Each structure stands twice: as structure tokens, then as C-alpha cells.
Amino acid sequence: MAEAAQQETLTLDTSDVDKYVGQRVVYAEMWDPASATEIRRWVQSLDYPNPIHWDEEFARKSKFGGIVAPQSFTVAMDYGHGCHPACIGKVPGTHLIFAGEEWWFYGPRIFPGDKLTQERKFDGYTVSDTAFAGPTMFSRGDTVHTNQKGEIVAKEQATAIRYLVEEANKRGVYAKEKRAPKKWTKDELAEVNKQRHDWILSNREGKSPRYSEVKIGDTLPRRVIGPHSVVTFALECRGHRQNIWGTWRWNAPDGVKDPALDDAGFKSDMTYDHDASKIDPRMHDGLYHGPSSGHINQEKAENVGMGGAYGYGASMNAWFLDTIAYWAGHDGYIWHSKTQFRSPAFEGDVTYIGGKVIGKLDDSPYGRPVVQIELVMTTQDGDTILKGKAEVELPA
Questions:
Q1: In the predicted model, what is the mean pLDDT of residues 78-103?
Q2: d(CA 302, CA 293)
Q3: Does this model's pTM top 0.85?
Q4: Is 140 a residue whose pLDDT tops 80?
């Protein structure tokens, strides 16, 4: 009875968060324009071998005339993996994981030499009861990306989950006893690698399907990523430009206090030390310190209820966008996407990605016909880790 009463009175202290709803937040900016090498690093870290993003000779012969970034790279032009404006204010005793992303794209592509600036806003939050951790905050943050020409490239709304660490550990949804990484046999790995290679060959030349020929129910070639490991998670972290030492700065206007610098209520070993990082950059390096260090640190992951090393939500959303873009080819363009994350990609798992055409809009909000794609990511055990939809332009 006492335990039931405790569960009924368990609450999140959101009092510090309320004052930031609707406010501009997170004043951070990259110092330098994007480089071709950074675009190559991004697709390498996400295992996306589309040659227009890394092969100079191939890219020069394409319609783009050289290396071009995938649409997923937009998040790497930003600080905070796209999630930071959704994590504002102190909620004591909590940690954070990603819950999903919604993107609107506006036409401009990103090329080497482009520099994006961001305006970020804390949109608000709701609190719901979850099996994972009881009362859980689902917080939303908006980011608008503008290039050096003044063109709006994209807008993102990220949703973050802020949960009570102690309660998540008690419930043990991702307890380490349930998270022993799968050991893959030689034959199993050979099959995974074959499926990966088949997907690469499915549209390496970038041919776009015709809108008039695409039918509802058509399926996209199945993609496989993994097995995931501490090494692949570290590579994903390094694919983000912000995680290279010295690439960004705080730039709040004079007299403006940026809540991004404040204590968010995380455990002490999961918090950046901004002052110390001026001397030792590891103190603001997500592979060593801060809230994302649990992705590759087994003990830290266990301490925040995750049970073991786990992947990045931003990576899953990039896999989603890249898989659709590869099918859509060089003349395709994603105008809108929305994803919901069900679970992280854990160490030892393989992610299988399947998609299909679920609709066609001759008259779309984007001023051109689009096909609607649904994509689902599952593990080798059939567990769903992501579901999402996108609207994609194809040549007539």
C-alpha cells in the first residue's frame, strides 16, 4: 500500500521550466562554414554511402556539380543535435532522451562553403505517465536554420523526454539484465553485410522514380544498419560538427541570459563543466562528459536507466531521411517529415529499415505533387524503434 501511495504522489518539478515557454533560447553559433570533409565525415559516421556526398569524381558528374550535403546534414550544422531547445530549465533528478523530430525543408541545399545560423525557441511541454519512468515530460523545441544568403533552409521541432532517473532505475524497462548485447555469428554477419550491399546497389546512380509511375503500396528497398557498437556510437558523435573541439561559440546578445548554460537537473557526472572546458575541451566533449556520455559509457548508461550503451536519436532520424532520399534519387526532395522514437538502438542490435508508399498528393501544401512515405525501423527481434512519415517530391 505504501508503495502504491508513493507512486500516486510521484511528480516532476517543472516550476523552473514554465518561465521559458515561448521564449527564444540557446544562443550558440558555429564559427566556420561547412566543408566537404565534414559532409563526408557525416555520411561515413551514419553509414550512408551515397556517392554524391563523398565521391568527388562522381559528384562532379551529377546535377550538383560537386559534393552536396544530404538533407539530414542540416542537424549537424547546429549545436545540440537539434535537441537543445527542447531541454530548457531545471527539472531536478532527471535525464533526457530523444522522443522524435519533425522537419520542414524549404528548398535550398547545403554545399561546402555554406554557413547556417539558428534561431531557437522553447515551444512548451506536456507531462504524461509512462511505463518507463512514471511522470515524464515531453518537451518541444523549435529551430529555424537560415543560410548566409538569408534563405530559410529548414525548421525542426524536436521532442525530448525528461524523466526521473531514480524511478526509471526502479522500473528497469531497459535494465542491463535485459540488454546483453547480441553476439552475431559469422554466417549472420555475412547475411547482414549482403543485405547492406544490396541496398547500396539499389540506387547508387541516383535515378529518381517518376511520380506518375509510383503506386500506393510500392515498397522501398530494405536497408540494414549495424550491428551497433560503442565504436559506431562514437563515430556518430564525431559526425556532428559541434563535437569537434572549438567549432562553436556562445553568442547571446548583451544583457541576455541564455538558459542553456544553466543546470538542467542532471546527475553531476552527466553535466558539462563550461568553465573547465575553456582549458580542457574534454569537459564539454560528449564522449567524455555531459549528458550524452552515457551513450558509450556502460556504467553511466546503467545509472540513468538505460542499461547499456545506446545510440543517438539524431542518428535514427538521419537514417530515416537518408533512406528515403536514397530511394528518391538526385531529383527527389523531402519537404516534410515526422518521426516518433520508440526505443534507442542498443549495442549489439541491428536496425532494419522498411518503407512503403502510403499516399500521393497531386495538390500538396508544398505547391507540387508529393508521395507520402511511411518508414519503420525494427531490431533483429522485430521490436519497433522508430516510425515515421515523409512527403517527397519526385520528377513528373
A1: 95
A2: 12
A3: yes
A4: yes
Angstrom distance (rounded) from CA 20 to CA 91: 13
Say how far apart CA 376 and CA 390 lie, in whole Å: 12
Residues 28 and 251: their CA atoms lie apart, in Å, by 6
Q: What percent of the chain has pLDDT over 70?
A: 98
Using alpha carbons only, give the angle 321, 322, 324 rounded to the nearest 5 degrees.
70
CA dihedral 32, 240, 41, 199 (to 10 degrees): -140
Query: How large is the average pLDDT for residues 367-380?
Result: 97
Q: Of 114, 99, 109, 176, give the one whose Cα is nearest residue 387.
A: 99
List the beta bridge partners of residue 129: 135
Give a three-class secondary structure readout of the chain.
CHHHHHHHHCCCCCCCCHHHCCCEECCEEECCCCCHHHHHHHHHHCCCCCHHHCCHHHHHHCCCCCCCCCHHHHHHHCCCCCCHHHCCCCCCCEEEEEEEEEEEECCCCCCCCCCCEEEEEEEEEEEEEECCCEEEEEEEEEEEEECCCCCEEEEEEEEEEEEEHHHHHHHCCCCHHHCCCCCCCHHHHHHHHHHHHHHHHHCCCCCCCCCCCCCCCCECCCEEECCCCHHHHHHHHHHCHHHCCCCEEECCCCCCCCHHHCCCCCCHHHCCCCCHHHCCHHHHCCCCCCHHHHHCCHHHHHHCCCCCCECCHHHHHHHHHHHHHHHHCCCCEEEEEEEEECCCCECCCCEEEEEEEEEEECCCCCCCCEEEEEEEEECCCCCEEEEEEEEEECCC
Separation between Cα atoms, residue 325 and residue 330, nearest integer Å? 8
pLDDT value at residue 5: 45
Cα dist. 373→71, 243, 334, 370, 387 in Å?
A: 16, 32, 10, 10, 11
Tell me the per-residue pLDDT of 232-291, one tens digit each, with 9 for 90 and over: 999 999 999 999 999 999 999 999 989 998 889 898 888 888 889 999 999 988 899 888
292 vs 288: CA distance, rounded Å: 9
What residues does 127 pair with on adjacent strands?
A: 137
Do the beta carbons of residue 312 and residue 295 sit within 8 Å? Answer: yes
